[in-house]
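Many introductory courses stop at the sequence. We go one step further.
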Amino acid sequence: MSAAKVDANKDIEKLSFEEALAQLEKIVGQLESGEAPLETSIELYERGTALKAHCEARLKAAEAKVEKITLSASGEPAGTSPLDID
């Protein structure tokens, strides 16, 4: 990937999950339309790949933060423990 393309995708790191997902959905729509020239389609695909990776990383980070409520023997909330997602 050229330095210009890396710089063009550097802004992705600053996007929220929702912003990145919205951009990814827009790119998918553009690619599905088939109206973009080949070079533009390649650039869109590369950005879409970077956006997808960013969204996956944001989701993984969010999952790591999720905790489940633990209950005592009497059924009362007793605290939290990390969510076991495996």
